[in-house]
């Protein structure tokens, strides 16, 4: 019965969540039918359950009545002299006893049905879990003093028997450097950012400010690295709560972060629908555009002030002009913060200090953009040559504008 109940509730919840789509496509009937089918399945077992209950009720009552009647006959006729009070007391207890049996049967049954929840909790407990924090994994208080990152022979896979999505990466990023990561779709850029945070299983070592990340507690590691994932997540509440959930900063800091993240360059000060710290955010950021969500995620990362900031396509949904404003404010305001920037749009990262090119999980190029562009057969050069605004990219990589018609 409890196995049949979950699908009913699940289907109902899904239908409510997708109500607008169901109405728009006129799919009410299909949903109604599916819902009725599931209810039927539940009703079958529920009907059975209550019928059995009734079956046992009648049997137990009959047996109980026979037992009390037998006892009464025995007490009245079997033994000679008996006091009325004793007989009354015994009969009363006997009647109580038979209803007690029924009650016990019911309770045992209830326990068994509710045991389903225990089973569920048990299987959740048995899921493989990340290591718990330990005393020895506590990093020293000064850590991280710099955003220095050294990666040695890093390989990663999503499951123990899955394929290696990263293969033997080794590189070093000095504190305060801006490093771009490029590569084709599926080349392992997001996987690299996840493996720096030990979100997937890794081999090899990552040293963050001199300490191997495998030796420190996960909460210490993750609270000292800020990552903006490919799909930013916001919480329902006000914008202020999203930027600063623990109320640690004052409004001036939050406004500064919003400015650096480019919010004020995409909205007018007197616009009616402009976002302020008191704007309400729907759950998951549903009432904002994807670009606005990315800007808020970026502002949140700036407020946190970690030494290592990882942006995974954090500005992919933001127009080019705003993106370059954001990139320049990141460059100018986060001086000693190491930034790792994953981007498909080459303009975003072409003026970075170093560029990592990934291909099928392998590091194929690592160096300053201008250096990499010198290599005629290089991947970065191929990517740049493929793109529409090749000349502007070369110019940006070189750090000076290229005159019209000048060959590279
Ligand atoms: N959750 C996952 N479970 C198993 N394999 C995964 C998972 N996520 C990604 N992969 C695999 O890892 C490889 C690298 O994926 P990754 O997400 O790192 O690519 P990416 O370079 O970030 O691509 P994109 O530019 O599309 O974001 C892919 O081959 C993919 O099949
Ligand atoms: Mg990705």
Automatic annotation (TrEMBL):
It comes from the Eukaryota. Residues 149-385 form the ABC transporter domain. PROSITE patterns: ABC_TM1F (PS50929), ABC_TRANSPORTER_2 (PS50893). The keyword Membrane applies. GO terms for molecular function: ABC-type transporter activity; ATP binding; ATP hydrolysis activity. Pfam families: ABC_tran. GO terms for cellular component: membrane. Keywords: ATP-binding, Membrane, Nucleotide-binding, Transmembrane, Transmembrane helix, Transport. Residues 1-103 form the ABC transmembrane type-1 domain. The chain crosses the membrane at residues 52-77. InterPro entries: AAA+_ATPase, ABC1_TM_dom, ABC1_TM_sf, ABC_transporter-like_ATP-bd, ABC_transporter_C-like, P-loop_NTPase. It is found in: Membrane. This is ABC transporter domain-containing protein. It comes from Rhizopogon vesiculosus. The lineage of its organism: Eukaryota, Fungi, Dikarya, Basidiomycota, Agaricomycotina.
